[in-house]
Amino acid sequence: MAEADSERRLLILYGSQTGYAKDTAYRISRQAWRRHFAVSVQSMDQADKWSVFTATHPVIFVCSTTGQGEEPDNMRKFWRFLLRKSIPHDALSGLSFAVFGLGDSSYQKFNFPAKRLYRRLQQLGGTPIVGRGDGDDQHYLGLDGALDPWLQQLWAALLDRYPLPKPIVPDSVAPDPSCNIAFADGNDDDAVLNANQAVLAAGTHLARLVSSDRMTAADHFQDVRHFRFELEDPDDAPSWSPGDCAVLRPENLASDVDAFLEQMHWTDRADRPLEISPRSDSIIPEWIPRRTTLRWLCTAYFDIMAVPRRSFFEMLYYFSSSADEKERLYDFTTSEGQDELQTYCMRPRRTILEVLDDLPGSRVPLDYIFDVFPEIAERSFSISSASAATPGQVELTVAIVNYKTIMQKPRVGVCTKWLLNMAPGQMVGLRFASGTMALPDSQTPVIMVGPGTGIAAFMSFIRDRIIDSATANYLFFGCRSEHKDFLHHRQLHQWVDQGVLRLFCAFSRDQDEKVYVQQRIREQGDLLWSLIAEQHAVVFVSGNANQMPDDVRQAFIDVAAAHGVDDAAEYVQQMIKTGRYQEECWY
After folding, report:
1. What is the four-CA torsion angle of 482, 483, 487, 492, rounded to 10 degrees?
2. From CA 304, how far away is CA 291, in angstroms rounded?
3. Residues in Cβ contact with 395 at an 8 Å cutoff, skipping those fewer than 6 apart
4. Which of 253, 316, 330, 354 is the most buried (most CB within 10 A)?
């Protein structure tokens, strides 16, 4: 295998929330290796910040977008450091850099982290190697639609600066594995038990499931659950603010793990202790035990039920013993084959388990499992309980992901399937993360628009404000039917009766003509304008991001226009800029 020239070095830093930016960073690193660069890949928060400021070699940044244009969790410390006013304006004058962002153009703040990062690096004197790349989920080829041409520009610019010392390593040659895996000595029960022990990541707290209650009618198409957890050690857990999230790392079900182990021909070795020796510390998280078992890894770490990305097929290609499968896998890795990959995998949401079932001649050597199979991504859920009201009790309002595609079996979310199969009393690890919405003081009225599960964070808002004796709480809630999916209706009506909440509901299917929350907003225009213009109310919008946020924003623009505002759209835009109109929406 070719060795990289020590002078030809690249540092690749990523900020990733769900794994896509990390996957992209490692894809770039493999391409760099083929061009004889020595590469280091790290998350931005993991990297030594001063190594960026003193770098004499190019640095490539890859970052995704989370929330409403926010930086991913493992980029935030780095980003705050870059924003320090004490940093000289020419601190990065010796830095050559490139930035690629991953986002979705249907969001208002499309690729904001990448745009801000690119601009800040330039402000500090850095020189871009190529223009910023903006990956867009809305492209018919997904993120690759922008990534492929951007990478062509990047390599052309870098190879102009660092000419190839020898030919590019061909695509037919597999890169080295990131770690060595060997089965450990000892096959006794204690060794197996110890190797299968779960490990809590830093900042994670143990919680016990108390209950899981269905909130929608049994005959309603959507199953929405109210999960209640109790922290095992409430005194050790931090209090959370209204709007914050509980972050869970789900596990695969035992039946899926058994099927995967059987497919990979690992069943007879699944519970033998093995030892992991990483060649690169950055690819394997610290919370993964270096002595474990295949069963534990396939249960707690590898996302065997994920829809595989292009990089999965790129790596699987090297290990296929079937000529037909190898040809098909190669097609999936080319730019020309991305439409076919979308049709085969992305659109029907075909899982890794199902892909391997289609490709019996393609199996992964043990040493490469961390290079091929993705990590289970954490899932964030808005907390419905308030720390000030019920310390140590975490409540979640969760829609169970279950839908159909052309595949025979329904598509079921890994996390919601795991939650559904959890028995009361079962322990889970969770951590707390800041939300993107922030409550004003208790004297300021709040207007909340939360159709469907968008109500989750607002339950926390209202509970917290009641503790502070704040009664100017206005909620616009929408669902299909008052008797099918009116979430938290008993508690909401109780608050209405107590005089601490004004509630306006839109039940879209309970009459011939559909009614949505934006219509209720226009109907209450006089009240809302009085709250906004005279009492400086803050508006919060939460829920599905498809069309609702735009429709609700337009309704508030219409309210402002109806009350004499000449440029109503600009008025609402100023509310957004000053934090008086906040959105937290998702797909």
Report:
1. 70
2. 21
3. 226, 227, 228, 229, 383, 384, 385, 459
4. 316
Distance CA 463, CA 390 (A): 9
Kind of pairing between the strands at 37-43 and 5-15: parallel
Burial class (CB in 10 A: 0-12, 13-18, 19+), 488: buried
Sign for the CA dihedral angle at 394, 236, 391, 544 comes to: negative
pLDDT digits (tens, 9 = 90+) for 3-20: 445 578 999 999 998 889
Q: 231-274: per-residue pLDDT in tens?
A: 998 777 778 999 999 999 999 999 999 999 999 999 999 999 99
The encoded tokens of residue 351 equal 């899982």
Measured distance CA(543)–CA(198) in Å, rounded: 34
Distance CA 245, CA 385 (A): 10
SS3 content of the chain, % helix, strand, coil (to 5): 35, 20, 40
Report yes or no: 483 and 405 within 8 Å, Cβ to Cβ.
no
- Please name the residues in contact with 550: beta carbons below 8 A apart, sequence gap of 6 or more: none
User: 263-273 burial, b if ≥16 CB within 10 A, otherwise e?
Assistant: bbebeeebbbb
Structure tokens at 343: 């049709």
The whole model's pTM is what? 0.88
Backbone angles phi, psi at 346, to 5 degrees: -70, -50
d(CA 501, CA 156): 61
Q: What angle do CA 522, 445, 70 make, to 5 degrees?
A: 85
What does the pLDDT look like over 264-303, one tens digit per residue?
A: 999 999 999 999 998 865 567 878 888 899 999 999 999 9
Measured between alpha carbons, how far is residue 489 from residues 215, 345, 446, 448, 496 in Å? 9, 40, 19, 16, 10
